[in-house]
Amino acid sequence: STDPLTIETSVPFTPHLVDAPSRSVDTSPQELLTFFRDMAMMRRMEIAADSLYKAKLIRGFCHLYDGQEAVAIGMEAAITKKDSIITAYRDHCTYIGRGGTLLEMFSELMGRRDGCSKGKGGSMHFYKKENRFYGGHGIVGAQVPLGCGIAFAQKYNKEDTVTFAMYGDGAANQGQLFEALNISALWDLPVILVCENNHYGMGTAEWRAAKSPAYYKRGDYVPGLKVDGMDVLAVKQACRFAKEHVLKNGPMILEMDTYRYHGHSMSDPGSTYRTRDEISGVRQERDPIERVRKLILSHDLATEKELKDIEKELRKEVDDAIAKAKESPMPDPSDLFTNVYVKGLGTESFGADRKEVRTVLP
Amino acid sequence: HELLLFEALREGLEEEMDRDPSVCVMGEDVGHYGGSYKVTKGLADKYGDLRVLDTPIAENAFTGMGIGAAMTGLRPIVEGMNMGFLLLAFNQISNNCGMLHYTSGGQFKIPIVIRGPGGVGRQLGAEHSQRLESYFQSIPGIQMVACSTPYNAKGLMKAAIRSENPVILFEHVLLYNLKERIPDEEYICNLEEAEMVRPGEHVTILTYSRMRYHVMQAAKTLVNKGYDPEVIDIRSLKPFDLHTIGNSVKKTHRVLIVEECMRTGGIGASLTAAITENFNDYLDAPIVCLSSQDVPTPYAGTLEEWTVVQPAQIVTAVEQLCQ
Q1: Looking at A221-350, which runs of residues are DSSP E strands?
Q2: What CA–CA distance (Å, rounded) separates B120 from B140?
Q3: Are residues A271 and A349 in the same domain?
Q4: Which of A10, A93, B128, B280 could form a disulfide with B124 if both were Cys (CB 3.0 to 4.6 A apart)?
Q5: Which domain holds residue A20?
Q6: Which stretches make up the Dehydrogenase E1 component domain (chain A) (predicted)?
């Protein structure tokens, strides 16, 4: 059936200086099936990245998003590609949510030429300019002032669009966040600070790093909303609400209560600072994909087998993309010097071989 | 028409704001107050609070916001009230401003200008007398220019604003009131070009910013003593104009560098390395580099004077170099 559905969020929103939106979220069978498919694909993709890392095809830093998929998906469902998103280093799924391709993603992860950043960025540096995805940033918290600046440009250009500036609970303690929020509030910028609270900044539990882990309240004079970040419909509702709010009133904070199944990065087994019971408990009780699967089944929107078939298809889609990415060539030595400057200025004045004098004068 | 250096900067800024609606200015007290060195005087009245933005004292955040705005195509000019304050924004300038074009595989350009006064002034104390070009020079992806006359101040300001690359424009606290007659018609300077100040045959003196005037003072004495020095204001601190510099070295075979930057890891040190690497065959004598002493700039006037290079030292250095 294609009749619209209304579904109650799992837990109520907790508001700060604002009236919470309704717990009843409008959706449709089509939307729920798309949510399932998109989140399952992200899950599959991150698991595949884990294997590629263990096979040493992906090196360096690699931060996986599995567990947090509902945030990326719910957010996209509430906004358009004219709105902007910027995030930190756990950026694979946000990039895919913005319309990035599996091929460009896996190519970038393996440092290939066909990567979204030509192999020069790596796991932490995914971008998609045409869909207003501003990265992909490696320094904890430093992307938030950038996001506020993007929102400033939106206001400057008199657009009716907003920016979602995402950060984790670890970054929530960075001073620059409060600086940028103050300026954004003074200038009434259309920016939403999205705190993806996965409860651990690397291995430091939130309460060991924040005197007040109520991140939705930490804007003081800025309104906030605490959201169940494992419930894709709640995320959608909150983001739609926030977009409307910030266009009229200036910034807002959304705290997404979420969880990462993997460790912080590939060198972290993720089990020294939390118990295995805690992880499996979240998986059983709050998993964002399972929640949608149950909704689909209980409303008879698809059969268990149909959902399994979708997952099988996705596995193939991911495997095909990886096979193709493996065929992408490594960057050429000449790529080393491109994109340092917009014109190739200066980079060659010492010469790659450090012998040749080639001053590039326009 | 004749104007002071700060007015030349202001004129360049105003012309570019007239020309391009995506140019905006942000910084501490740039708006209603008019800029602590009056570079943005009157602009807030003319362009309004959306294009001339007074920020809180939060360099890290507003520099980052300028960079974010630049990612979308705006052309913000971020003023550091004093260069020393920009250290609070160093992460944004290095990790984001300098690297984003590269890490995004060329997707994003950062057409921002970061500018402000630096250098040793009149007893301003350690923090407000810094030459941060030494800190910024190793950031890949950033261009750096230093202005020294009203003419090049205006021309470089306009070029920096039009550049698709992030540019740091270094001004000097003691040069804002220099007066000069500049053309009435529009002009811009090349960001990558050195300026031939005085052609000569005996020795190449490379300098920039305020030290240009100490060098020219010394040059007078040197000419009276029978020397014919070639003085070049390198202007582009990154990348160096090795074309102009190289041709001069080929002619004079001797190089003296005079800078206000720090002795250790400064512009002079990098320049020495670049010349040795590229033009060693043309040198008849080792390069001499006169820099500031490696000390926090002292408050006391006499101590401060001993910190930076004085004209008499330049004369002595040339005499020794040309023996």
Answers
A1: 224-228, 252-257
A2: 26
A3: no
A4: B128
A5: 5-331
A6: 37-333
* Angle A72-A74-A75 from CA coordinates, rounded to 5°: 65
Q: Are residues A221 and A261 in the same domain?
A: yes
Q: Which two tokens stand for residue A257?
A: 């209560």
Q: Of the candidates A198, A201, A182, A55, which has an alpha carbon nearest to the alpha carbon of residue A140? A: A201
Q: Which residue of B53, B95, B108 is in closest CB contact with A127?
A: B108
State the fold for domain B195-321: Rossmann fold (3.40.50)
The interface predicted TM-score (ipTM) is 0.94
Q: CB under 8 Å to A58, separation ≥6 — which residues?
A: A49, A52, A109, A110, A123
CB A125 within 8 A of CB B103: yes
**Same domain? A172 vs A161:** yes
A210 and A359, same domain (yes or no): no
Q: Reply yes or no on whether the pLDDT at B18 is more than 60.
A: yes
pLDDT digits (tens, 9 = 90+) for B158-198: 999 999 999 999 999 999 999 999 999 999 998 888 999 99
The rounded distance, in Å, linking the Cα atoms of A177 and A14 is 22
Report the 10 Å Cβ neighbour count for A31: 17
Nearest CA to B266 out of B239, B244, B247, B293 is that of: B293
Rounded to 5 degrees, φ, ψ at B256 are -120, 130
Domain count, chain A: 2
Active-site residue, selected from the candidate residues B59, B171, B230, B260? B59
Beta pairing, strands B2-4 & A84-86: unpaired
Q: How many CB pairs under 8 A join A and B?
A: 174
What is the token pair recorded at A255?
């705290």
Same domain, A235 and A350: no
Question: Does the active-site annotation cover B59?
Answer: yes
B104/A121 CB distance under 8 A: yes
Are residue A156 and residue A14 in the same domain, yes or no?
Answer: yes
Segment B93-102 shows an average pLDDT of 96
Check B103 against A135: CB less than 8 A apart: yes
State the Cα–Cα distance between residues A359 and A127, nearest whole angstrom. Answer: 31
Domain boundaries, chain B: 2-181, 195-321
Q: What is the pTM of this model?
A: 0.95
DSSP letters for A195-207? EEE-SEETTEEHH
